[in-house]
Amino acid sequence: MRRNITIFLLATGAVAGFAIGFGRLHYGHGHGCGYGRGAWGHDRVAFENHVADVCTRSAERAMDRRDKAPPTPPPTPAPPAPAQ
Q: pLDDT tens for residues 53-82?
């Protein structure tokens, strides 16, 4: 009895999994790995602009954390004294 229930549940899960997978392929028009209609839709340029803005803000925060003035270069050694 327990074996029959397990077989039924596994078979139902397999059929449901395939049905969901084919449904996602149909819904996403072949772009099944998260490229369906979502927050960004099919507008790749808008997504690339968003990523560029995020990277720019991150770089600006990193530059703000650094010291405002550039580090001073080490002093140059004095030229050797002329030989007499």
A: 999 998 888 888 775 666 677 788 878 888
What is the model's pTM?
0.34
Tens digit of each residue's pLDDT (9 = 90 or more) over 14-52: 999 999 888 877 776 545 455 555 555 567 788 888 899
Residue found under tokens 């803000």:
57
Distance, C-alpha 21 to centroid of its chain: 24
DSSP assignments along 9-65, one per residue: HHHHHHHHHHHHHHHHHHHTTT-TTT-SSSSSTT-HHHHHHHHHHHHHHHHHHHHHH
Rounded to whole angstroms, the Cα distance separating 80 from 59 reads 44
- From the centroid of its chain, how far is CA 75? 44
